[in-house]
Design goal:
Blueprint (H helix, E strand, L loop, with lengths): L2 E2 L4 E8 L2 E8 L2 H10 L2 H8 L7 E6 L4 E7 L19 H6 L2 E2 L3
Antiparallel strand pairs: 1-6, 2-3, 3-5, 4-5
Amino acid sequence: MTLRVWDLAHGRSGDKGDICNIGLIARDDAAYTTLCQQVTPERMHQHFGDMIKGDIERYELPNIRALNFVCKGALDGGGTLSLRSDHLGKVMYTWLLRMELDDE
């Protein structure tokens, strides 16, 4: 069985211009630990490929078992410029929830 981020968390995402903000909220403490270990900016770049052209900054919020990712250059110019179907980044969290994790 393949372990995916959605097995451990739920999420939300949105935009500010060409920056997409993706939040993951772990289902429990063990899930938060696994997410912190495995959902890194490097892994996100691998997962999203050339969809995210800029840096990805990760912020940890342990009191609420959450991770927040600020993805620069992720929306092809943003809502007023992009021709992508998700130019506001509202469903990018669902793509992140599909990321496969190592089943430890």
